[in-house]
Amino acid sequence: MLDDIKKRGKLIVGVKADYKPFGFRDPSGAIVGLEVDLAAAVAKKIGVTLEVVPVVSANRMEFLTQGKIDLMIATMSDTAERRKVVGIVDPVYYASGVAIMANKVANKVATDVKSAGQEVKEAAKETVVDVKSAGTEAKEAVKEKAVEVKSAVNDAATDVKNAGQ
After folding, report:
1. What is the pLDDT along the chain (165 residues), one digit of tens a residue?
2. Cα-Cα-Cα-Cα dihedral of 9, 14, 17, 20, to 10°?
3. What is the CATH number of the domain that holds 23?
4. Is residue 135 part of a domain?
5. 137 contact partners, CB below 8 Å, separation of at least 6
6. C-alpha distances in angstroms, 146 versus 16, 59, 63, 71, 117?
7. Is residue 164 part of a domain?
8. Residue 165 located in a structural domain
């Protein structure tokens, strides 16, 4: 999935557009807020542009599972039922629970990578095959991607925290 995003040159992220300060429309109609800032930091970290797609509670899970968005950062609580459908990316930034989620295939990769001490969920689809078929060399590549993704999220959280001070 990460390779597809890089080839496309664009990360498509679903965010809420009606929940200040996380995601809302500014006077010009652009979606702005914490979630957009986090999404922009992730896109920058992986070297692609960002496309923001507005989502609402009723469609955000469907958009993610249908592939309309690559990533969802949309103030959504983590539940056991939701974990059956999407993968959860840490660290948590929303007080009610985890709000960054990846598709179910990504969650499978995260399980494989956790045994190596890393969490990765954005690079899921293609790395599952790589890890199983290429052995140690592929596992190292997955670890590097996991560090990049986790670092991007941590950097974004720090930037947002610092911006609010």
Report:
1. 788 899 999 999 999 999 888 899 999 999 999 889 988 989 999 999 999 999 998 888 889 888 899 988 887 777 778 778 887 776 655 545 445 666 666 555 555 545 434 443 444 444 444 444 445 555 566 566 666 666 766 666 676 667 666
2. -100
3. 3.40.190.10
4. yes
5. none
6. 25, 28, 24, 15, 10
7. no
8. no
For residue 94, the SS3 value is strand
Residue 92 in any domain: the answer is yes
| Rounded Cα–Cα distance for residues 4 and 6 (Å) | 5
Please tell me the total count of domains within the chain: 1
Phi, psi of 18 (to 5 degrees): -140, 25
Tokens encoding 163: 């911006």
What is the separation of C-alpha 32 from the centre of its chain, rounded to a whole number of angstroms?
A: 17
Q: Which among 40, 33, 54 has a CA at the least distance from the CA of 10?
A: 40
Rounded to whole angstroms, the Cα distance separating 154 from 165 reads 17
Residue range of the domain that includes 123: 2-159
Q: Which residue has the tokens 């992730």?
A: 42
Sheet holding 71-73, edge to edge: 49-55, 10-16, 71-73, 100-103, 86-89
Is the distance from CB of 57 to CB of 73 less than 8 angstroms? no
